[in-house]
């Protein structure tokens, strides 16, 4: 009898532990309470691969990931959707946090339904940038065309539900802009085209000018609750360590300094636009500090590897180079901050999105 009791007690402890783990995960991913019992009709996202749920599947570009091992842990496993991760990406997690839906679909998804449109989509395209040249070099959807698709989206909603309901959806929705990393990591750092014309201060000015144009146009076509993500600690992602970090693959200080400079300018731009458009709720979302925190304190968040991706060697593999034949792909992505050499794992995205968004939600209302 004593032995049976001990076995039951042991199983009970295990059950309690699993409940605790599930509760933590649920808290990080699921919606948080919104101020004043607000409800959000839709989440609408613009940007690059961090928030692209599969738009690039449907355009002619090599910047794709609609094949394994991408999506290895998505919705039960082995479901590559075009998301640049092993599972969810921040656009999904943000939509869940605002209580809208668990997955934010790609606008170009041919299976898109009316209800998908009414509750929000992502127009983001992996490889896009503020600099128009960035999108052109990668043959992906530039910000200007993402905005054109949004205008098309507005017309579709009007045809489906009428002007009154459309006006509510457009004005009450949450808008997220997440873009710019490819400008620094690829167009500027890995190509001589822009370096021949600009130094980093003037190149970040070009990026800010494009950001200002986009945000003002987005406001003009009806957006009011707009969150803008700054640049992450670009120099510490595995690909940039490999390309610019020397034999020890240290973080690339020049790219990190470029990101910091851009973020300072972006914050100032947002403050200026808040004065210009007092009806808008413009929110700066800092991703640089949280990602650096995770990289510098991995054990605090349950990570082991911070300088390599899970896919292949983890040093260079991304997009087509990260495929089912990539040797040495890890068996446990939850140990890794990065999935491939450029994009975080679902677990890292979950922590990051909570750290970036949770304490800013009140600022959207």
UniProtKB/TrEMBL annotation:
Q: Which Pfam families match?
A: Lipase_GDSL (PF00657)
Q: Per the UniProt record, which residue ranges are transmembrane? A: 12-29
Q: Which domain of life is it from?
A: Eukaryota
GO cellular-component term (any): extracellular region
The answer, when asked if Zinc-finger is one of the entry's keywords, is no
Per its record, what are the GO molecular function terms? hydrolase activity, acting on ester bonds
Q: Which PANTHER family does this UniProt record tie to the protein?
A: GDSL ESTERASE/LIPASE EXL3, GDSL-LIKE LIPASE_ACYLHYDROLASE FAMILY PROTEIN, EXPRESSED
Its protein name is: GDSL esterase/lipase EXL3
User: What is the native source organism of this protein?
Assistant: Lupinus luteus (European yellow lupine)
